[in-house]
């Protein structure tokens, strides 16, 4: 790995910074070498950081060496991709705020496959489960990799059915790859870390935070050619994913449901607003 990329991974693994901070660091010094020479008190003035975040970042940055950090990732079989790597997903690099670094566990070759995301409520109805069982197998047979967020409900079922159908699936996490959330999906994640792919922009031991999930959602839609929403209430994280897919210029598909079912209000509203109505997997395949 080139020295600049190594420095980027080291900086990215530290707490106290976000996407914009790294953007400012690169604008300040494209090699990132100078970042390691600055004193703690210089960061707030130079990079619009709070004193608290500057203290946290500075401590993390100098708590270990770059090589030691990279050795740890290698031993734990965590693959790294920076936005400057040729293997970085082209479709993800085109979004407004692509992740600077991706942390991967499993078959990273899946990032080169044709991906479609399937997301929805954490509390699906029997109808929602039947929809997944009907729509995903034909997508698998047509060599689509199913992307979802490893959340309870529709997400987890999408991963499980993909595996059962001997297909490929990618889980995009709102935590690090060694801090699986929710913990009830730990066994599923462990299986996917071997035979499928876990992907996160958060360092491996970073715990899930509420604000991580909208960031995760932009990656779910960002690596996919289209996003399918199966059951979502009117105020739902799945609708954030749909909104981000539209902003990224990707297709959005929605499965209709009963007007008396709150879990279908969000998907029905998406259709009303122009999302492509899905009755069969062929409706998706023909469109993309």
TrEMBL record:
Gene Ontology biological process terms in this record: DNA-mediated transformation
Domain named Smf/DprA SLOG: residues: 80-287
Pfam entry (one): DNA_processg_A
Entry superkingdom: Bacteria
Protein family per UniProt: Belongs to the DprA/Smf family.
PANTHER family membership: PROTEIN SMF
Name of the protein: Rossmann fold nucleotide-binding protein involved in DNA uptake
Organism: Schinkia azotoformans LMG 9581
Lineage summary: Bacteria, Bacillati, Bacillota, Bacilli, Bacillales
